[in-house]
Amino acid sequence: MSESPGSNRLIKATSPYLLQHAHNPVDWYEWGPEALERARREDRPILLSIGYAACHWCHVMERESFEDEETARLMNERFVCVKVDREERPDLDAIYMDAVQAMTGSGGWPMTVFLTPDGRPFFAGTYFPPEDRQGLPGFRRVLEGVSQAWREQREQVLTQGKRVVEAIAGTSSLLESHEPLGDDLLRGAHAQLTKAFDPQWGGFDGAPKFPQPMTLEFLLRCHLRGYPDSLRVVLLTLERMSAGGIRDHLAGGFHRYSVDARWHVPHFEKMLYDNAQLARLYLHAWQVTGDDGCRAVAVDTLDYLLREMRHPDSAFFSSQDADSEGVEGKSYVWRWKDLVEVAGEEVARFFGASPEGNWEEGTNVLWLPDRGASPPAGLEEARRRLLEIREQRPRPGTDDKILASWNGLAIQALAETGRALGESRYVDAASGAARFVLSALRRDDGRLLRSWREGRAGGPGYVDDYAMMAAACVTLYEATFDLGWMAEARRLADDLIRLFHDPDRGGFFQTGEDAEALVLRPKELFDNAVPSGNSVAAEVLLRLAHLTGEDAYERAGVSGLRVARNLIERAPTMFGHALGALDLYVSPSKEVAIVGDLESEEARRLIRELWSRYLPNAVLAAAPPGDDEAARIVPLLAGREPLDGKPAAYVCERFTCRLPVSDPEALAAQLTG
Q1: DSSP assignment, residue 12?
Q2: What pTM does this model have?
Q3: 191 vs 222, 234, 571, CA distance in Å?
Q4: Where are the alpha helices (DSSP H) in 226-291?
Q5: 462-484 residue pLDDT tens
Q6: What's the rounded Cα separation, in Å, for the pair 564 and 566?
């Protein structure tokens, strides 16, 4: 079993999550042919355990069960035990999470699923305690019961596995809807979202409360459409979140979610995807309102990513743990005495702290409960000192693997913020991350890969990796006008269609046509914490269609919307990013081409007119006059000339253009008209 004394097979893994389990007494396998063949050969069920490095309850179950010799003995004798990092294998996570939800009515991590040797799930759950507790059966009792059922009730087990696979195949078998894709879908979604809005604390529904940046982005689009209350919902939510304990008031960035409805006490893990999406959302809110508070949060969040989540070679790590030394939130909370000693009582009370504590065991989570309070004198110096003290504590672990898709989200946020604020360091950071992903996470044949860590790349990339990196390259092109980024975007988009598009039923499979065969080929349509690959593919292909005029991009992009159309109508809260892509499709778009000396002040003024505005349904291309290569890669530029020797902007809708203009005010009128 062991590769070295005291270790198991996971010692050779690249995933930090799997490496956390490399010294368990469990005979763990990674998912792959070796484990599946052993299960078939020995006629054993598979015990599949899925989690991720920053997951608090994953750590708890490891300590209680996977490190326990007696539990491990039972696992090893009765099952083939497989450990999976959900972030490296989102296809397995999607399939078996659907199974957990189908069998139990809920889901989460750690995920515990028992499979037949051919991968069919027949019993499932999430966290199991070591002994019976709070209505949950003890894990050893579960192991005994499942093992007995496999030996004595084999036919029922196999029938259950077949039924579960049939039940979870529904999303993958959906056909494109032929119902109209129109404004009525957007209005219906807006009505449901504003109804679910919490008018006191912002956000939607009650506890636990998640940021939902994609939903808020959609509501910003609704504001541009004139739908009532859209901006109020967004701004109140952003204000409450930025004041809450879900935000790290010392180091910047946001925790995963709030366990209460007030945004006060977070679940303390920090994810790259949350912070990338939230930084971009706060930037967009600043573009709409000019609110400097939103601008400051965007900058603060990106600076956190650059400082704490960046690999020396420029790409971004995946997450920071909720725990330090096995205690959730230990790095982040404060005793009253320690807080006052460093920052003073006035600052302590400003951060909502009290002598008796505002959280567990007399500790305090820093937040800003009194939004009308004036900042006390010396606040910034106090924050600096508090952060210095906190940095001396045991730090939460960092999952330092690099994921292509999540880096795509970060690249978009950095490039957009950099161009909007005139901060070249953000654009440079975005470019560096993109270069790393498109080199280190690529095979020699050009196939994009999912992950990378310490010089070792993971398996083939999924649809979200291709879609999010294509979107990142489009954004980088619009921030730099470097044709290389546009060429990369088109290459990724072409491969996206070739590898993932379903020409028969529409939409996009999660796995490529070259992927291993699983019990089914999943389609991930729902936008959860991260936009689904299907939604991002729809949006980026529609944007590329505006830039290039290629019908193939538009047809494939629209199919991603059509396959989800009826689900969007029934459950819009699960389709925040898809709703944004739908808005792009049904709204009048602005296709802007700027031609002239791009280094001249006249051209820069025209470009800044675009960059400073929130224009989610606009695309932008720019080039010097007579640049045939630019016109070939970005056909929107073809045939454009300066106006009376001055840089000119052409504003088009579906390649029907207005008269070119050289004055920024005239351009602004065309953009808003």
Answers
A1: G
A2: 0.95
A3: 11, 14, 12
A4: 230-243, 272-289
A5: 999 999 999 999 999 999 999 99
A6: 6
